## 1
Amino acid sequence: MILDYEPAPESTAIVNLRDSYGLYINGEMVDAISSETIKTVNPATGEPLAEISMAGPEDVDAAVTAARAAYENVWRDMPGRDRAKYLYRIARLLAERSREFAVLETMDGGKPIRESRDVDLPIAAAHFFYYAGWADKLDYAFGGVSPKPIGVAGQIIPWNFPMLMAAWKLAPALATGNTVVLKPAETTPLTALLLTEIFDEAGLPPGVVNIVTGAGATGSAIVNHPGVDKIAFTGSTAVGKLIQSQIAGSSKRLTLELGGKAANIVFADAALDQAVEGIVNGIFFNQGHVCCAGSRLLVQEPVAEEVISRLKRRLETLRVGDPMDKNTDLGAINSAEQLAKINELVQAGLDEGATIYQPACELPETGWFHKPTLFSDVSQSNRIVQEEIFGPVLSILTFRTAEEAVDKANNTPYGLSAGVWTEKGSRILWMAQKLRAGVVWDNTFNRFDPASPFGGFNESGFGREGGRAGLLPYVELESVANGAGR
Amino acid sequence: MKVTVATTPVDAVGLEQRAAAFATRSIKKGSKLAALDLSIRCIDLTTLEGVDTKGKVQSLAAKAIRPMPGNPDVPSVAAVCVFPQMVPYAAEALAGTGIEVASVAGAFPAGLGPLEVRLDEIKWAVAQGATEIDIVLSRSLFMAGRFAEAGEEIAAAKQACGPAHLKVILETGELGSYDAVRLASDLAMANGADFIKTSTGKIGTNATMPVALCMAEAIREHVNRGGSPVGLKLAGGIRTAKQAWHYLVLVGETLGETWLDPALFRFGASSLLNDVLMQRAKLETGRYQRAEDFSEA
């Protein structure tokens, strides 16, 4: 029947994978000094895709040295309008090759091609376009003060949005005149490595961006390198805390974008059909591998049953499976390790007496997959309510009054995002005032725009990415007074 | 009258976002053939022109029965939809085929004739052989906030239909908001509509994906609350096979497979049929045919 939708796989022929990859240092792909390697695999099949270098301290040192030279000799003093030209070129080239990047992103990370094609890549390109626009207008960004670059930025990004996070990190750093050593996650390094082709094509001066692949040890080498002036990290709260302690006492600047346990709050007067879509998008987008995922549903009691029944019905139409299929809604879990973590927390939910619901979908036999999962009959003290699961698992709680919703929403160590669903405008404004979250979405969820700052409160981190606020982590503000004023 | 102004609100941004997502479904080969045949089986092949004649209606009926002469695999359409005066010709031409005779009635398309006259028109069309009646919601009463009266008119029309099925046209392009579309849907369903229908095809704005989704969600809620299954008819502006399968995806994923059937879903269209036939021939032969290879109705 028509709704079975025959397989509609996107072709992978557009991607040219190498057997192995070196590091991108000073404008060239070079062999790593470290001989350690790791294989990056396709999580939908478990098949290895390519061999990746695990950069050691000497490799990181070479990258930082190249970044320092490029900073001092080329990039720092280049007029903003000229830096902008490079960023515009990168943005255009990325947009032109977006299908290739989307396919590779899905192969390496497991997210549905529908998302890498329609979300990750368009927003990544938009981010470069947006910050290209700031590069020659920095003197007007903060009024009366002159923003100066910081120096060499060490940027460490996660595996959930590899290309998009690279864009979020690179674009503002480069626009403001900093140079970069970027480390993609060890399970998803391929799009960042492909991005080096775009840097070459754009004629980006050597050393402005250096890409070193590796795991925690490589990240630690960047964090602890004395030649690095600023660290920008997106990842887990535990690692964020470790980084913060490691750079204590140094002059390194730090921004952290860490975990979350966002509340998606549905009031009884909400547009319920659209709220259900927002709940689904909030927790099942990218298999729930989203730091700002709406992983706690708070629903007002009069409509709780109604919302849950609509939600269950909607889950039946979600298509879980081959991420490369254009009709897939939920793709693969990024790694065996992450799947084990999700399974452990789901078991904890069952042990704590929560009621589980999963649709009757079949999972592929190879690769790592997890059914979309709802937990009801949960309480605020349960682990599945407190801890970030980072998977397609939603915990459903109820509330009676707006005050109670706010109390429950804020009762978490995190504070990255929140969603409010109501048709009453004044209530949205009141809620937004009370919620402790970096982003509050009203009547929508998981909407990203380069012009809108993103970042967290509390243990979700500090610093903002996107918008004018996203320039701040990469500049020193210098007051220039000439005495003529008085 | 069960519905007043309290109805489930609709968020326009979310609705349009969701509606757009259906159009990204990729329909291949076997699924596409099934979608094309289903589209044909769900068409109310329509002519609603002042110049309609017996000859025109007979020609349309012939096309309805055998859309692709020479290829008996191509199914017949669901119904032929005409003005009341054309009903006798349609009924005669379609007798024994199983194809429904649909008639607009009730001072179509404005619906502003005297109620008694409109009800008589319905009864007359049914007596002449119409098995389905398409009336319009009184937008005059609806926009004035006189929802109860608008609903009573629909209930009266339902009674006048007797055994014939009642389709209520909301003329969504005139209602101004999705909230109003949802309310009008609820109003029509609560007062006995067998089908709710988007448009007359006589104004600029006809069926759209978000409006179709809005009405499908209203039907879903109606059924979840214990109401009997109500059909959905999308009319006006649907001209290509691709548009048709986007709508089928929307209806199937929102209301379930049960609605992917002419008993509960219709396209009100005329030019759509030949585009579907052309795509169908392309699937079977691997080549596009000339437009001249497909007969005009």
## 2
Amino acid sequence: MKESKQPTVSTSNESEHTSSKGKSMSPPPFSLSAADPNAPNAGQHPSTVNDSAKTESPNEEGGPILLGDARNQDVGAGSKVNGIPFQQNYNPEGLFMVGPPKVQHFTSESAPDGSNGDRKKVGVGEEVVFYSDVAGIWTANTGSPANQPDGKKFVWRAPKRAATATITIKSGQWKTSVSLDVLEPQTVTTEKFRDFAFDPGAAGAGMYLYFDYHPTTVSFANLEAGEISGPASGIEGYFKRWPAETWTHDSGDSWTSIDRKNRLMGHDQAAGSGFARPWSAGKFDWIIPNRFRVEGESGDGKVFHQMTQSFSIAADGTVTVAKGGSSVTRTP
Amino acid sequence: MNLDLRHIQFELQVSPLKCRLADVASTKIVLHVVNRSTQNVDTENYRYELLIDGESSMIWSMAIGNRMYDQKWLSLPPQDSVSEDFSSLAPRLFTHEGRYHLQLKWKELKAKTIIVEVTE
């Protein structure tokens, strides 16, 4: 983060912000005004004073931003402001500042767990909007766009896969970087919301499931997810009456969008039915690869989780189907 | 294959109806359901059985019962429709040369039989 020619202050924006939830983004948090550069907190927006900012030399005190009209100030080389060596840095509006750009960011989607929009963890493909108090050149080490020539606002989309993203704004000699952890889905849980209603006397059981994608500390609203078809394993007893291919899982290998609550937009069905008499004990499993991809991405996506779906039948025709922590058992 | 069943019209669309065994994988099989009533309907898609030459297809039952579906399948608005592609089943349904009699069934009601011919 250090420039070779001029001292540069780097900051991390970790200030608390409580107003950004949901789809709407907060307005730019900074206003540029001609402030008194000698005032103790000149230039600091009252709601964005960053007590936890990490700074580097030369400003060990947190890098307060001092804004003023350069045309009316007589601050030359060797001058100090608040005891700090003055780095003259003009922004495009003719104002000068001492210290790095003050940056805040807000995700366009809130996280299902209620985390604020200025969180440091984001989901793959999430959109994040960065605001700076001064215009500058924006760069991102990953995601898109990789850079933006000038401006106070930078709309950025996280990469398609996990990464540590660093977004930097450089204004004059100064620059500020913000690091974000970009997370992929890690697990899927299921929630049963209804059983199938098979006719009395028939051997079979089934259920409707919701799929929830984790962690919920980030938003996966820009993702699609799906299951991959595959063979059955551990086929025993009753189910050996049929060729093993009969029990192959055909998921359709389709893609379904994830909503703002990190829940599949739609539902999953898990069932075993049509099991003819005579019944006897038996079982088999599916180990189902779950995959994701960012909307607009082509290809097979990335497998991130293996979910087991198990089927069993008892001698009395009782069928149990279990999947991802949910299950249904039904006796004919 | 069309059938008006109270409020729901369902159809199994298979094309082509005649193909070579080597080309079976390209056969399109689609279940199409239309709500002809004036209120939302649960399609209860797990009740659709596929009879092949009179025998209930376990491959079909396992496939239709174990997929991700749009929520519309549970509450299909009036005059709206839903479809699901089961083409991936074709190689397992049509494993050899011959004529296959396909009939979609919902409880005791059966739709018109369609014939798929697989040649060498």
